[in-house]
Amino acid sequence: MSDSPNITAISWLSILLLGFVWGGTFLVIELALQTMTPFWIAAARIGFATLLTLVIWSILGRKLWLSSHQAWGSLIIVGIASSALPFMLLSWGLQYVTSGFAGVSMAAVALLVLPLSHFLVAGERMTLRKTLGLTVGFCGVVILIGGNAFTSTGSELETLGRLACLGAAACYAVSSIIMRRLPAVDPIGLAAVPLVFG
Q1: What pLDDT is stored for residue 167 in this prediction?
Q2: Which residue of 58, 82, 141, 171 shows the fewest CB atoms closer than 10 Å?
Q3: 171 and 81 in contact (C-beta within 8 Å)?
Q4: CA 84, 89, 91 angle in degrees (round to 5)?
Q5: In a domain, 77, yes or no
Q6: 32 within a domain of the structure (yes/no)
Q7: How far apart are CA 165 and CA 137, in angstroms?
Q8: Measuring CA to CA, which residue among 82, 60, 43, 93 is closest to residue 177?
Q9: Is the pTM here over 0.85, yes or no?
Q10: Contact indicator for 90, 164 with CB cutoff of 8 Å
């Protein structure tokens, strides 16, 4: 019996759509920074996503916790680390770096999750295959975005902007580990409630 997932054409289309939406976000933020401040952009993103997910969740009428065990403290941390903090860091950092650099920074999330999972998630171990796969994937992102991702903008705060983008990637990695350690929870609720805290 094989444990490998059944990957269909819909799976690939979903990945392409996710990549387009997530990757396009950096360009949209860069354009929005011409007329809005970084923290208003972060607030607008969180506010819109919160309203959308809460509406969907309320229509479905599901409860949040699927067992008697609840972890509200962890959920608050997920809200801060998966939306509030990284959205602010990215919006601020994109004032001083290119959207290409921000995109490459987000590819680093997977590289951060692998070693964290090894130590913090039961049953998740780093293997040579996983390490090679992530390395090849990260190199692929760099090649697709091109060498311009690392081109300097000339801003004197560029180094801090790059650190902010990498900090956002670290937030996403940490929040994904915390989510994996949560008790049984409704997936739509898990999208909505942390946004409320964010």
Answers
A1: 93
A2: 58
A3: yes
A4: 95
A5: yes
A6: no
A7: 19
A8: 82
A9: no
A10: yes
